[in-house]
Amino acid sequence: MELVSRQRALREGLKAYFTGKPCKREHIAKRSTSNRYCRECKREWQCLYRAANLEKARATTQKWAQANPAKCNATVALYRQRKLDQVCACCSNKEREAVYQIAHFAGTAVDHIIPVSKGGMHCVHNMQLLSCSKNCSKSNNYDPLIEGLQYLQNLGLA
Ligand SMILES: [Zn+2]
Ligand SMILES: [Zn+2]
């Protein structure tokens, strides 16, 4: 790298200069003409800043998920299905989210009647609430939405 003094950088309007001497933290790097700040230090600081903010953002998301578990489940499912391009056009996100809300209050899981792996759509008409894990057999008589609503009514929420 060509040595450029700060005076010359100022005179020629260059954004950076280079003395070839290490900074306080022993980087041999260009420095900003305006504030003499080492570019390598700046880069490291930016990395740390980004990482710190990422953690902050993650913590915020985690708090939100804990406060809104049903919304979180609905959002996660929607993103997953969108990736697979298996989101129906007949339901709104609000309608789909309502199923997850009911499932949450009823303490059940949302299941796709036609599994997503077999091309089932992310659609309220293809959703049911299952009170046990996916491995358990699905009953045809079980109407999870009605049961979920009854549950909500019992709680005085619907
Ligand atoms: Zn430095
Ligand atoms: Zn639909």
What does this 3D model show about the protein?
With 158 residues, this protein is mainly alpha-helical. The chain folds into two domains: 6-54, no CATH class; 68-155, no CATH class. It has five helices and four strands; from the N terminus they run H-E-E-H-H-H-E-E-H. It has helices at residues 6-12, 39-67, 69-84, 93-106, 144-154; strands at residues 16-17, 31-32, 109-112, 127-130. It has a two-stranded antiparallel sheet with strand order 1-2. Helix 2 (39-67) crosses helix 3 and helix 3 crosses helix 4. The longest helix is centred in the middle third of the chain and has 29 residues, at 39-67. It is elongated. The site of one zinc ion has 7 residues, from helix 2.
What attributes does this structure have?
mainly alpha, two-stranded antiparallel ribbon, two-stranded antiparallel sheet, 5 helices, binds zinc ion
Number of contiguous helices: 5
List each distinct ligand once: zinc ion
Q: Mean of the pLDDT scores?
A: 84
Q: What's the SSE pattern?
A: HEEHHHEEH
Overall body shape: elongated
Structure in a nutshell:
By secondary structure, this protein is mostly helical. Helix content is 49%, strand content 8%.
Please outline the helices and strands.
Elements: H1 6-12, E1 16-17, E2 31-32, H2 39-67, H3 69-84, H4 93-106, E3 109-112, E4 127-130, H5 144-154
Antiparallel strand pairs: 1-2, 3-4
Bound molecules: zinc ion (2 copies).
